[in-house]
Amino acid sequence: MTNEKGKVFLIGAGPGDPGLFTLKGVECLRRADVVVYDYLAGERLLEHAREGAELVYVGKKGSDHTMEQEDINQLLVEKGREGKIVARLKGGDTFIFGRGGEEALALSEAGVPFEVVPGISSAYSVPAYAGIPVTHRGYTSDVAFITGHEDPTKEESSIDWDKIATGVGTLVFLMGVKNLPRITERLMAGGRPADTPVALVRWGTTPRQQTITGTLADIARKVEEAGFKAPAITVVGEVVSLRERLRWFEDRPLFGKRVVVTRSRSQASELVERLEELGAEAVEFPTIRVTDPEGGYAALDGAIARLREQPGFYDWLLFTSANGVERFFQRLERDGDVRDLKGVRLGAIGPATATALAHRGLKTDFVPGEYRAEAVVAGLLKLGVKGQRVLIPRAAEAREVLPRELAAAGAQVEVVPAYRTVLDDSGAARVETMLQDGEIDIITFTSSSTVKNFARLLEGFDLSRLPDSVTVACIGPITAETARELGLGVDVVAEEYTIPGLVDALVQEQ
């Protein structure tokens, strides 16, 4: 989408947790032709960019600058003058120590239209995630946000150290790890008591968050001994003492765990959301991608035509996955709707599949208590499936156990491919490197195909020699059996073969 004049949106990307990004920011990203983003602007936010948008990384990490600020200013001006809609993503808030004001001035002087989209600043959100309220009426009613990047020993410091040392209750220093010894010295020299509580929070609001506490007298030593590095913020004041009672983020059951999610990208959201709610960092490795059947949809379309033209031809319509539901109805609704299913009984293998049908206003007649082929057949036999026609739209490469067992029990089974799963190698290199570096805690598998594809994509890595620290979790016994056949040691098998069941099993394991 372009505009004759072009426009630049200066957007605060928030502190790191993608859930703290604003709705206005999402709207701007979806419109943008060009996205210019920083080191501290989480890459998850780029998922909101429209397909085909130009992505330009201009991150600055310490003294390592991908692009100097003057060049960034010029880039924004040039893209705006080209008539482009530009989303400029900046970590935290646009105008709090982010040089957003300089970029806005450059655009103003060049006559390029711009808008400022404020973001949630790390100055108050990171302390909140560490259990530290920057104000509390029982402790202090004032707070100051101060750059820690300035050298406080320089002769012409813009910070009045003598006044802030005792004049403000809570002091929040951004980007001050390197200068921490000098900052604490100046505050104590200005009259702040040496036993004043201090906290440093690194990678705040993310699953990598780390917090270290001390006092003005000893915090610099503690930070050095712990090897505590930037990016971090420093909080000085009595409110820090509330952390032990108010900490919440770091106490979640899966906090800090790196979990590989092998589900297809279109299906991963539920698992990712549940893991992140419990404090984990989800590493998406969509080993499979759902696509059209290799031979096309002729078989599925033919079955749908019989459903429509010969009412009563099929007695049962049995779905084995939510993907099967989605693809079946995509084809059905090209020329018809759910009324074509009148008189057909619906079966769903698992609650997720039943939920997919419920979202279409359909109630299932059969959901087995256990999701093995034997249990499915036993349940259907009780409902009189013998001698009846059963249509199963499913993955082209699915196991043959269920249709074979149904046929052996006297049913007339017709299996039609509704979709197929193919390899997706987009995350293989990253995951292999993380495994080699010991950066993975948990690997989750939600189907046998995810296990097989995981092994194929990492064929150069000996899966049988995963470190003991890596937990392998499977959604059910069939998936676990496949994992073991491929040399993986399985640590967790969900009792309920669903995403919530898998997550519950992981929590119990910790």
Write the layout of secondary structure elements.
Elements: E1 7-12, H1 23-31, E2 34-37, E3 54-57, E4 60-61, E5 64-65, H2 69-81, E6 85-90, H3 100-110, E7 114-117, H4 122-129, E8 143-147, H5 161-167, E9 170-174, H6 180-189, E10 197-202, E11 210-215, H7 219-226, E12 232-236, H8 243-246, E13 258-261, H9 269-277, E14 281-284, E15 288-291, H10 298-309, E16 316-319, H11 322-332, E17 345-348, H12 351-358, H13 373-382, E18 389-395, H14 401-408, E19 412-423, H15 428-436, E20 442-445, H16 448-457, E21 471-474, H17 477-485, E22 492-493, H18 499-509
Parallel strand pairs: 1-6, 1-7, 2-3, 2-6, 8-9, 13-14, 13-20, 16-17, 16-18, 18-19, 20-21, 21-22
Antiparallel strand pairs: 4-5, 9-12, 10-11, 10-12, 15-19
Throw out a few tags for this protein.
Methyltransferase, Cobalt-precorrin-4 Transmethylase, Domain 2; 20% strand; 22 strands; 18 helices; five-stranded mixed sheet; Cobalt-precorrin-4 Transmethylase, domain 1; elongated; alpha/beta; Rossmann fold; 510 residues
What does this protein look like?
The chain has 510 residues and is an alpha/beta fold. The protein has 4 domains: 7-119, Tetrapyrrole methylase, N-terminal domain (Cobalt-precorrin-4 Transmethylase, domain 1), CATH 3.40.1010; 124-247, Tetrapyrrole methylase, C-terminal domain (Methyltransferase, Cobalt-precorrin-4 Transmethylase, Domain 2, 2-Layer Sandwich); 258-287 and 424-509, Rossmann fold; 298-420, Rossmann fold (3-Layer(aba) Sandwich), CATH 3.40.50.10090. The chain has helices at residues 23-31, 69-81, 100-110, 122-129, 161-167, 180-189, 219-226, 243-246, 269-277, 298-309, 322-332, 351-358, 373-382, 401-408, 428-436, 448-457, 477-485, 499-509; strands at 7-12, 34-37, 54-57, 60-61, 64-65, 85-90, 114-117, 143-147, 170-174, 197-202, 210-215, 232-236, 258-261, 281-284, 288-291, 316-319, 345-348, 389-395, 412-423, 442-445, 471-474, 492-493. It has a 5-stranded parallel beta sheet, with helices on both faces. α5 crosses α6 (180-189). The chain starts with 6 loop residues before the first strand and ends with a helix.
